[in-house]
Design brief:
Number of domains: 2
Largest sheet: 2 strands, antiparallel
Distance between the termini: 31 Å
Shape: elongated
Number of helices: 10
Radius of gyration: 22 Å
Order of helices and strands: HHHEEHHHHHHH
Length: 234
């Protein structure tokens, strides 16, 4: 049923495979998982690894350990968190696929920010943009400042779920963002393009033009994907 797995990230891999089997219906909702000893034998790992994997799934609300009875799959009403397998996210093509998901969200974030931003929000966005420029002038890659800029726009929507989703996705884009920002910093034309793209987004938000903000954000993310591809990422 299960594949033998390497020693790297054992508990994460076990948790992911268990989750896949639960999703397939191999283990029914409300049903009992095999014992720790049986799972350890099937996966070819130690019982400690199994316990760590079960603990992770418990924390995510997927399974429910019951004292003296075993571990049971959550019922139909159990809320499931969004998760992306880190190993899968690092595979060829996945970075660009996640970036495409972020593009769709960033477009709506910019649009909503244009409609709902306050003057205080606008000041925060302007300050975040200025910090990117300052970082680049000092010779830094500006990764942290770039992330903070997009977060400032998400905050301006007044919708905390936009911000939470972007923070979640950015975990899997961090490596690509670092390489892209460094690549952009080394090429004056790239650096200028990014600065202009950011400025267009800010101008549209300032003008309260939701359509223009959506277009500018979409264009920025499309260009980010192109620059990633040129840097050999994704």
């Amino acid at each position: 049923m299960f594949e033998k797995i390497p020693t790297r990230a054992l508990s994460d891999t076990v948790a992911q495979q268990l989750l896949e089997q639960i999703d397939k219906g191999t283990f029914a909702r409300g049903g009992k998982l095999p014992t720790e000893a049986v799972l350890a034998q099937q996966f070819g790992v130690s019982r400690t690894v199994i316990r760590e994997a079960i603990s992770r799934l418990k924390n995510e609300g997927v399974v429910e350990p019951r004292q003296g009875s075993g571990v049971f799959v959550g019922g139909l009403g159990t809320l499931r968190p969004l998760r992306i397998d880190s190993a899968e996210a690092a595979e060829a093509g996945s970075v660009l696929q996640i970036l495409a998901l972020r593009r769709a969200i960033e477009a709506e974030v910019a649009s909503e920010a244009a409609l709902r931003r306050s003057e205080a929000d606008m000041a925060s966005i302007d300050a975040a943009l200025a910090r990117i420029d300052a970082a680049v002038l000092e010779g830094d890659d500006g990764v942290a400042e770039d992330v903070a800029f997009h977060r400032a726009i998400a905050v301006a929507t007044g919708n905390p779920y936009f911000l939470k989703t972007l923070i979640f996705l950015n975990q899997y884009l961090e490596a690509g963002t670092v390489i892209t920002r460094r690549n952009e910093a080394l090429r004056e034309d790239f650096s200028r393009q990014v600065r202009d793209e950011h400025a267009e987004i800010v101008a549209a938000i300032r003008a309260g033009d939701a359509a223009a903000a959506r277009t500018a954000a979409t264009s920025h993310m499309n260009n980010a994907a192109r620059r990633l591809a040129q840097a050999g990422i994704g």
